[in-house]
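Allow me, if you will, to draw on your knowledge of protein folds for a short while. I have a record of one protein: its chain in single-letter code and its fold written as discrete structure tokens. Kindly check, if you would, that the fold set down in the tokens agrees with what the sequence suggests. Thank you for your consideration; the sequence and its tokens are set out here:
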Amino acid sequence: MAKTIRIGTRDSELALWQAHTVQKQLENLGYTTSLVPVKSTGDIVLDKPLYELGITGIFTKTLDVAMINNDIDIAVHSMKDVPTALPSGIVEAAILERANVRDILLHKGIQFLKGNGTIATGSLRRQAQWLHRYPNHKVVDLRGNVNTRMQKLTDSDWNGAIFAAAGLERINLLPKEYIDLDWMIPAPAQGAMLVVAKEKDSYCREALSNLNHKDTEICVHIEREFLRELEGGCTAPIGALATIKDDQIDFTGVLFSIDGKTKIEVTKTSTVADRKGFGTMCAQEVLTGGGIELMREIKKELK
């Protein structure tokens, strides 16, 4: 039986852009939809049973609760923000074709790169990789949605700030002057959009299956498998990138110390047919190469 698919989204400009993209694709297929912006307040009281469902993502929790409460049917996320374990009863329904995976630097002139400077980012992964390359620089915390972070950079005396290229491109905020950080390994699933649905909702799951991009799905699953095996959430400095060309998968994964001084990297290839367990195998190589001790140190620092 046909129904209106209620699309849940955070209410930031980027989140709404992503939700509108999914809405347009569904409506082009003949489905009826409505958008349900959900304010991510951070102060919603969750009772014990909901916590036991495994709701851990700071950016996804509010939408998970709305779905469990039947206020929405599906939810659209930046996949890099989604915990590797979804709440009970909620499943991946579509992974859209990936956009630009790179991090970029917005700056006020690049002279500082040869000396001292201050860079802003709320990501430990970006911080660690920046300090690894520029150990004399200072990194300060930067949080908020894309628009807020760009304004904070303008209003500050910082030399620059690091952003995901895809986010700025999607809402037409990419300035003329920026540096493509092609040496920085992105977050697992960076540039990919995930749509989740209730496991028992066959109508929405079937509708969303039309939006799924198989190559993107293969790559981000390998990256998230790597992340899960290293036991990293949003906090550990972990980067991963898988790409497919013809039938070959190229993978690079990194684990850094928070100060950027220690770097453990793995680079491997696989075929699409042999990809099962590939991300786990890459993570195991990092763990046996010093990653177990490094993860222990990171957890101590973050307590």
